[in-house]
């Protein structure tokens, strides 16, 4: 299991972003504390910041730092190595502090995490705010949370994929949103 934040976020701060196997069942962990660094706490998936994003204090827990990424400045993070999600359950989660929540037609996305495998159809994973709601996409099977995020307050978002049960669910502040059973069992995203 894994965590990353490859971000093209609109007016948003993120703090302590992580990915791990559901239920803590082994697997790889990645943790971004954003304490004045874009690096993975474990040193495996260090990020590179583009266009000078700022670190702001305090973070989501009233201590430490968060990274502020502004779309108006084209700020984002990128990670060089891909995470292997082949036949793996995973959770991607983040504490976010949106300075604004956008809605639009057909939609407005604030990407928190994205990983793609070239241009191969259905081999991507995203976690984002889409029109102000938590939105997860894995293998072109998308789930959306029912709760609108609020501007100017810390909120927790998560997206889980259970390989064995072939289900994915989004969460907002620990409350499950929509979940679906998906038909792609032999996932190839790696």
Please explain how this structure is put together:
This protein is mainly β and 190 residues long. The protein has a single domain, classed as Jelly Rolls (Sandwich), CATH 2.60.120.200. Helices cover 0% and strands 45% of the residues. It is built from no helices and 14 strands. Strands 1, 2, 4, 5, 7, 12, 13 and 14 form an 8-stranded antiparallel sheet that branches. Strands 8-9-10-11 form a 4-stranded antiparallel sheet, with no helix packed on it. β8 (109-116) and β9 form a beta hairpin. The radius of gyration is 15 Å and the shape is globular. It starts with 11 loop residues before the first strand and ends in a 9-residue tail after the last strand. The model is unreliable at 1-12 and 20-26 (pLDDT under 50). Pfam families: Laminin_G_3. InterPro entries: ConA-like_dom_sf.
């Amino acid at each position: 299991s894994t965590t990353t934040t490859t971000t093209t976020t609109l007016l948003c701060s993120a703090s302590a972003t992580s990915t791990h196997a559901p239920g803590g069942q082994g697997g790889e962990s990645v943790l971004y504390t954003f304490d004045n660094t874009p690096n993975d706490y474990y040193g495996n998936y260090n990020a590179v910041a583009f266009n000078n994003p700022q670190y702001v204090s305090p973070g989501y827990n009233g201590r430490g730092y968060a990274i502020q990424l502004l779309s108006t400045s084209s700020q984002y993070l990128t990670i060089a190595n891909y995470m292997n999600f082949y036949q793996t359950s995973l959770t991607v989660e983040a504490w976010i502090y949106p300075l604004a929540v956008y809605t639009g037609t057909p939609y407005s996305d604030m990407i928190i995490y994205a990983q793609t495998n070239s241009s191969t159809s259905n081999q991507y994973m995203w976690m984002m705010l889409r029109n102000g709601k938590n939105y997860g996409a894995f293998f072109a099977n998308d789930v959306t949370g029912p709760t609108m995020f609020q501007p100017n307050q810390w909120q927790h978002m998560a997206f889980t994929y259970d390989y064995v049960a072939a289900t994915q669910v989004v969460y907002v502040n620990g409350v499950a949103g929509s979940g679906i059973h998906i038909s792609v069992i032999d996932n190839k995203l790696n």
